Amino acid sequence: MQFKINPKNPSTGALKVIPVFENGISEFLTEKLALPFPPASLFSGKKDTFYSFESKDHLVLLVGLGDNPEYKTLENSYRRILAKQASLAENGIFLDFPDTFTSAQLEAAVVGFQLGAYSIGFYKKEKAKDFKKLKVEISSTMEKVKYLTERAEKIAAAKIEAFKLVDLPPNKITPEYLGDWAKDLGKKSKLDIKVFDTKKAKSEGLEAFLAVGRGSAKESKFIILEYRPSKPKFHLGLVGKGVTFDTGGLNVKTQGMHHMKSDMGGAAAVLATVQLVADLGLPIHLTAIVPAVENAIDKDAYLPSEIIGSHAGLSIEVIDTDAEGRLILADGLSYLVKNYQVDQVIDLATLTGSSIGTFGFECAALFSNEGSMSHGLQEAGEAIGEKSWPLPLWENYGKEMDSEIAEIKNYHGKPFAGAITAAKFLQAFTHEHPAWAHLDIAGVAFGDSEFAKTKTGTAYGVSLLLRYIENQL
């Protein structure tokens, strides 16, 4: 897209997009359009409504926002423009923002507008419309509109990257692909990148990580990205679950396996967040780890009842090979805490069906051993529409993971508290770090939406982490 800020007049034939709040609609439209139109019976400005018509000089699209739209409402409203009404925009777009718009509202609208250009038809002969050359004019009296537009471009680019990493098929998105993706980002953004192959991972003691990938022909990759500006305000560590496809291992999944390309939603969020933090030049030291594996089945696959090692030195009894995400996260968390002096640690993972059983598809399950961190993540998510809700980390839940033969087991084997016991397993590998949070994003990283006929990636975590980081600067 080609953005132009505050042109004197809209380009000839451009679609003029005007956001409308439900309150004061009549006066606003009279001022904007110089005529009392349309009748309230046709358009009232209610949330998620649209009205298009042809004026003297332009096509006009009115976007109803209701009274007090949330960030996500604005993002989705503007995403619909290109996703659903692209035929109106063939001669360009003129986004006419009112004086009452805040900077957050403008950002949400411009981010959402760009997300509307995303399509999952990667392998169709007839490609979706290409919006790269679309001329977009933005009109606003806001002082920092150019800066906000450039910022929104970077946010949208990161979210689209997260979409792609989840939506592309597992024969494309392999552990090696994620490693190469990180290396390419490192060259572009001048990051420190390390990608451990099997031999290097073994020498580093990443035994739990390596066990999960043993049954796959695709070599596992342990990916480390480090963004280090000159004067960082704090050091944040991220770990993202990167299971590029999950068969369940020898405890093979019996349904829904075709959706398991999404089991690296945490990795997608972490990688996209690193890209965004670097693009925005935020003053934080960021270290991110993505243990990337494919959980497949062959003669070398790890076995139920097997005892495996771990980077933290704890022996693990494997009860269920489909509880593999926590095994690779265990080594990722341990390696991060032991090798980098991070002030805070956050991991994101599509970890348990139990979190969906608790919250459905509305929010992530949040666990933290630090109150202000938990509150900060909740607050950030509420502000941008990526919600989470806390669950307890009481010690009695940890006892559920006790093993008779090893120091810990990877699954308690009971039909209750699955998300909590998984979190307690992870906590055992954090070396008692005082500021750790775990987001179980199984219900929110991949799902149904109005923008595709099948389940797709949501980029959950990218905007959340950005808001959480910036709230601390």
TrEMBL record:
Domain Cytosol aminopeptidase: 164-465
InterPro entries: Leucine_aapep/pepB (IPR011356), Macro_dom-like (IPR043472), Peptidase_M17_C (IPR000819)
Entry keyword annotation includes Hydrolase: yes
GO molecular function: aminopeptidase activity
Coiled-coil intervals, chain numbering: none
Domain of life: Bacteria
Keywords associated with the record: Aminopeptidase, Hydrolase, Manganese, Protease
UniProt name for this protein: Leucyl aminopeptidase
UniProt organism field: Algoriphagus jejuensis
